[in-house]
Design a protein that fits this description.
Blueprint (H helix, E strand, L loop, with lengths): L9 H13 L4 H14 L2 H11 L12 H9 L3 H4 L4
Length: about 80
């Protein structure tokens, strides 16, 4: 965890202070929670997004098998294209 400093307008600080007291929390925790929800999304939403992503290629017949695709990238002239002998 890293420490930071914020400048808040009085009305915002008063609102956060009152909310923190009513929830028996701290202003810092309320700010961390708000930033987490705003910029990382809610945990349930992130978890659901990951669940939705699992197996996304499973029923795609138009795509090569992942193993073959990766092997294809590894062979050939790739190193030469990257400028390596």
């Amino acid at each position: 965890m890293r420490r930071t400093q914020l400048y808040l307008e009085d009305d915002l600080w008063n609102s956060l202070h009152a909310h923190a007291r009513s929830q028996r929390s701290t202003i810092s925790e309320l700010v961390r929670q708000a930033v987490r929800e705003r910029y990382l999304g809610k945990l349930d939403e992130r978890r659901q997004a990951m669940q939705d992503f699992v197996g996304i290629r499973k029923n795609r017949s138009d795509l090569p098998a992942a193993t073959e695709y990766v092997r294809g990238l590894r062979r050939g002239r790739r190193l030469e294209r990257l400028g390596k002998p």
